[in-house]
């Protein structure tokens, strides 16, 4: 049985990579052999040899301290800072779902947990030519439950509720929400936390403040979240 979670967000640049790094770090510190995986990542720089470096993967590796080789983390790496479907049109090498699944399953055979990160928000075209692959297609192919990352500030009620409704309509399993850039005691952000729970029917699993180096989820709870069929 594969153990893991798919991290998506209400928008791009919402803090998915930062939160994912903390989730991986939490599992590693709990003694779990944990890997990171992202099917397609764009907006990357080249090293001195001209090779593209998957920046999100490098960040997670640095923050979490996992020894996983960088070249096993992202099968599709693009240079242009645009949606993966457009980056592939510009650069070539469009995403193949079969390769994504093969790379993921290989990690599942080598690690106890695999934490996957999505590209952009939930409505993200990964490939759009003679084949159409949306982000939800990858989540379904990997058969993973999800966590939604949302900003704690103004507008998050709307974006969180719409994201949840879309994902539920697609038949995706949602474990809960994590609020990023959270300021404890802020009246608006505390109310956002309450309203997100009320209007989505989902738990707010954790709130993360700027500069936090730990995610306040008990390791055993996180393990349950990452287990297929597991409850909070």
Brief write-up:
By secondary structure, this protein is of the alpha/beta class. It contains 8 helices and 12 strands.
What does this structure look like?
- By secondary structure, this protein is α/β, with parallel strands linked by helices.
- The protein has a single domain (4-225), classed as P-loop containing nucleotide triphosphate hydrolases (Rossmann fold), CATH 3.40.50.300.
- 38% of the residues lie in helices and 21% in strands.
- The chain has helices at residues 16-29, 55-64, 84-91, 97-108, 135-142, 156-169, 187-200, 219-225, and strands at residues 4-9, 34-37, 40-41, 45-46, 52-53, 76-77, 113-117, 125-128, 132-134, 146-151, 174-180, 204-208.
- A six-stranded parallel beta sheet has the order 2-7-1-10-11-12, with helices on both faces. Strands 3-6 form a two-stranded parallel ribbon.
- Strand 10 (146-151), helix 6 and strand 11 form a beta-alpha-beta unit.
- The chain is globular, with a radius of gyration of 17 Å.
- The two termini are 18 Å apart.
- The model has no long low-confidence stretch (mean pLDDT 94).
């Amino acid at each position: 049985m594969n153990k893991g979670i798919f991290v998506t967000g209400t928008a791009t640049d919402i803090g998915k990579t930062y939160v994912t790094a903390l989730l991986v770090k939490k599992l590693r510190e709990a003694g779990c052999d944990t890997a990171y995986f992202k099917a397609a990542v764009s907006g990357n720089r080249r090293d001195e040899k001209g090779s593209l470096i998957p920046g999100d993967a490098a960040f997670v590796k640095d923050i979490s301290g996992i020894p996983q080789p960088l070249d096993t983390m992202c099968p599709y790496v693009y240079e242009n800072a645009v949606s993966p479907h457009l980056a592939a049109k510009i650069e070539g090498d469009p995403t193949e779902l079969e390769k994504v699944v093969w790379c993921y399953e290989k990690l599942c055979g080598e690690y106890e947990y695999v934490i996957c990160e999505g590209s952009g928000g939930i409505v993200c075209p990964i490939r759009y030519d003679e084949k159409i692959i949306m982000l939800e297609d990858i989540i379904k192919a990997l058969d993973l439950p999800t966590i939604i990352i949302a900003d704690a500030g103004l507008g998050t009620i709307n974006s969180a509720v719409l994201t949840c409704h879309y994902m539920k309509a697609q038949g995706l399993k949602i474990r809960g929400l994590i609020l990023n850039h959270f300021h404890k005691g802020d009246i608006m952000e505390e109310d956002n936390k309450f309203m997100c729970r009320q209007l989505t029917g989902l738990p707010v699993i954790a709130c993360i403040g700027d500069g936090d180096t730990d995610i306040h989820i008990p390791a055993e709870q996180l393990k349950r979240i990452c287990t297929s069929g597991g409850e909070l």
